[in-house]
Structure formats: structure tokens, C-alpha cells
Amino acid sequence: MKRRSLFETTATLGLGALAGCALPGVAQNGAQAAAKTPFTVPATYVPIVGSDLMFPVRRIYCIGRNYAAHAREMGSDPTREPPFFFQKPTDAIQNVPPGKIVDHSYPPLTKNYHYEVELVAALHRGGRDIPIASALELVYAYGIGLDMTRRDLQRGMGDQKKPWEIGKSFDQSAPIGPLHLVGQTGHFTKGNIWLKVNGVVKQNADLSQMIWSVAEQISKLSEAFELMPGDIIYSGTPENVGPVVRGDVIDCHIDGLPNLGIKIV
Ligand code: MN
After folding, report:
1. Percent of the chain with pLDDT over 90
2. What's the total number of domains in the chain?
3. Is 7 within a domain?
4. Helix count (H) and strand count (E) of the chain?
5. How far is the CA of 70 from the centre of ligand 1 (A)?
6. C-alpha 236 – ligand 1 centre gap (Å)
7. For residue 2, is it within any domain?
């Protein structure tokens, strides 16, 4: 039967990919993608400005405490600590079109829901042990994002020396605007980054105040993980993080990118 032979073909291709055969255009996890499955699981994409292409998201990495004043407000000494990273699940992405204010659901379990505005770097190349000097060659595009945080749960778990997941890695915890190609914007090493709640400025800093630059973050991350095309990196938030409640409108800005807006509902 035609249908069946198609499945057999894709299964064979999948095994080939698993065995490490280099098949052009077949991802490392192509075996799953081509497999016969009982149901489908949606992939995660972020729109690319000025293109009909969508950026496929593989992993979401986030750096912690990457602005000195924010590190201090979180109770650590920024001068002595190496960078650290955590991940959010890919489907934590909430796409937010530019010029719109999109509803964002107040998540369960928290009574202290915080905003963190961040520059996001999206990679089209990967590798291990990337030197800082060539790290920016991995960056394909930039966007503006929010690392939404259930601060009470994050702190509670931290106090118990347990993982941060429940505070950081929940559904829709990663709102993001569309991606802008490096070729059009250049790299973001400086520029104003701010966040307002209901029109009042809460966070206001400059990207140049990052403790670890995007290039340094890529280099450090690649010591711990093999980076791959499709990985994105939330590059940390400035000081003055704080809570929002239902009805609040968050407006985020990075010089050179359209603002990102969500309403907590
Ligand atoms: Mn953050």
C-alpha cells in the first residue's frame, strides 16, 4: 500500500539519522519528526521580521543576574560570581506581535508574579567551546522578551536548595516579540532597555551594563552544552524587577526594536 510504504521510507530515514548518517535537511531528532505518531505536538516558532520564514525554537537558555544592580537586589555579589544559566521549555514562548497588547494569563500558584525585560539572541549556528571573539557569528537575529517569573516560588525553592523550574519554566513564561535579522540591525551591545507598568517606568538601564555580553554568554554556554541552530538566549534583566497583578499593562522597549506589550489577565 502506498501509505504504508511511505511510513517505511520515513522510518528508514529516521533510523539513518539516529545512526548518525549526515542527511542534508534532516535534523538530529528527525527520527521523531518523521515517525508515525498517535497525535501531533506543535512545534514552536517565532516570526522573523521582513521574511515569510519562521524561526524554529530548539532550546531557551536564560542567564541569571547579568546586571550588577539586579544581582545585588537578588542578594548576590556580582563581582565574584561566574555566570549561571537555566532553561525554559520551548513551548513557554508566547509570541507577541509588535504594536499590539496581547493578553497574558496570570499563572497559577503564585502571589508574586514578576516581570523581567531582556534582550534575546537567536542562533542559526551551533558548536562547543566557542571563542568569545567568534561567538557573535552564531547569532542570527535579536528580539525583545520577558522572562516572567513566579518570584515567590523561585525564592521558596531556592531557600530549600531545590530547582527553580516551578518559578521560571512554566507555561507562557517567555513572551517574545518578532526576531530582527542581525544583517538589518547589527549586534546589540548598547542601547536603552526599559519596562513600564501602566505607563510608569519600572526598569531602565543600558544593554552595555550587562556583566556578561551576549558573546561571552554564548562562549560560556557552549562550554556546558553543544549549542545548536534554533537555540535562543534570554540575556538577563536590569534592576528593579517587580510584581504585576491582573489588569496591569506591561510595555517593554529596547532601542532599535519595536516595543513588546502584554496585559495581565
Ligand atoms: Mn531573567
Report:
1. 81
2. 1
3. no
4. 8, 18
5. 10
6. 5
7. no
Whether 59 and 232 have beta carbons less than 8 Å apart is answered as: yes
Average pLDDT, rounded, for the chain: 89
Ligand 1 center from residue 64 Cα (angstroms):
6
- pTM exceeding the 0.90 threshold for the entire prediction: no
Residue 253 has pLDDT above 70, yes or no: yes
What CA–CA distance (Å, rounded) separates 246 from 257?
26
Measured in Å, residue 216 CA sits from the centre of ligand 1 at: 16
Using the mean position of ligand 1's atoms as its centre, give its distance from the Cα of residue 121 in Å.
13
In whole angstroms, how far apart are CA 79 and each of 66, 69, 86, 224? 11, 11, 20, 22
Q: What is the CATH number of the domain that holds 37?
A: 3.90.850.10
Question: How far, in Å, from the CA of 16 to the mean position of ligand 1?
Answer: 39
Using the mean position of ligand 1's atoms as its centre, give its distance from the Cα of residue 116 in Å: 6
